[in-house]
Amino acid sequence: MSDAVLLQLLDALADGERHSGELLAGRFGISRAALGKRIDKLRDWGVMLDAQPGVGYQLREPLQRLSAAGIAAALPAAVRALAVSVSVEPRIDSTNSRLLEADPAQDPQALFAESQTAGRGRRGRDWVSPFGSNLYLSLAWSFPAWPARLTTLPLAVAVALARALATLGLPEVGIKWPNDLHVDGRKLAGVLIEPRGEAGGSCRVVVGVGLNVGMQVAQAGTVSQPWTSLAAALAMRGRHLASREAVAVAVLGELALALRHFQDHGFTPFATEWRSRDLLRDRRVRFEGGEVGDGIARGIDSDGGLVVEVAGERRVIHAGDVSVRPQ
């Protein structure tokens, strides 16, 4: 059973209306039993689909598949001037993995996926990727020379993502060091940056973004930490969610401009806004990684490390997990 066959069935159901099983089976020239197997496979993809005997099948929400041409055409002129190529794949292992393997001569190049079978978060964690519910994007960018303080790039990317969400109606987003985006005490998006190159020479980065757009509880699977979606956060505020394609345009646009600004100016254009969105500042935190301990977060240093005050002394954490402790 190929992905192409399943995508045909998914597109037939995309309007969110109820569709007769008999008519669907006839349309594709298959038996009702074979149709049932395809429906089960779509559920394995994380598609939320209801079945009612004698009535038919229906997606719980209409499906908005992404269009590479539509995204590229809708990008602002300043972003189009950067000549970012845009591709969309229905199902792949990981957008970051694919772009790490891609020809750097084609950079900057953006790759969206409707679903990932091996999506990755920070520190090797899996990223849950139900089909057509969220935004999975990677952008490959080649710097002509290794940027000074490349370690601050994750923070700049987090600011860019927060800016995109503000244009989509959610300015209340905060940043949990180094680059997780949270709202209402729950994680909304994460970033994974993978650099390639040698010090003193050229540098290539692949920036991966996972943004929860419309994921539902039943689709979250193994997600253990508190999370939310853009749809839920906006609904709580009585605001309207734009189409997934509009979300894709906003995120890619801000991300591409941020990488260009970082290339020219480093972290400086992002520093003030990062500090204004810092969710850990002056809060008691626990850090785990190279070392384990508790302290008070005191912002970031010039290299993007988290400054933590421990027993009156300041330490800088460059990698690891940080969680807020009770005050």
Give your account of this protein's structure.
This protein is α+β, with helices and mostly antiparallel strands. The protein folds into three domains: 3-59, Orthogonal Bundle (Arc Repressor Mutant, subunit A), CATH 1.10.10; 68-276, BirA Bifunctional Protein, domain 2 (2-Layer Sandwich), CATH 3.30.930; 281-324, SH3 type barrels, CATH 2.30.30.100. The chain has ten helices and 14 strands. It has helices at residues 3-13, 21-28, 32-44, 68-74, 77-80, 95-101, 153-167, 230-236, 244-265, 268-277; strands at residues 49-52, 56-59, 85-92, 109-116, 135-143, 174-176, 180-183, 186-197, 203-211, 284-289, 292-300, 306-310, 313-317, 320-324. The chain is globular, with a radius of gyration of 21 Å.
CATH superfamily of the largest domain: Bira Bifunctional Protein, Domain 2
Strand content is 25-35%
Per CATH, what is the topology of the largest domain?
A: BirA Bifunctional Protein, domain 2
Alpha-beta content class:
alpha+beta
Oligomer: single chain
* Radius of gyration from CA coordinates: 21 Å
CATH architecture of the largest domain: 2-Layer Sandwich
Low-confidence parts: none
How would you sum up the major sheet?
7 strands, mixed
**DSSP, total strands:** 14
Instruction: Please tell me the overall pLDDT.
Output: 91
- Count the DSSP helices: 10
Number of domains: 3
* Secondary-structure element pattern, one letter each: HHHEEHHEHEEHEEEEHHHEEEEE
What's the gist of this structure?
The protein has 327 residues and is an alpha+beta fold. The protein is globular, with a radius of gyration of 21 Å. The strands form three sheets. A seven-stranded mixed β-sheet has the order 3-4-5-9-8-7-6, with helices on both faces. A five-stranded antiparallel β-sheet has the order 13-12-11-10-14, with no helix packed on it.
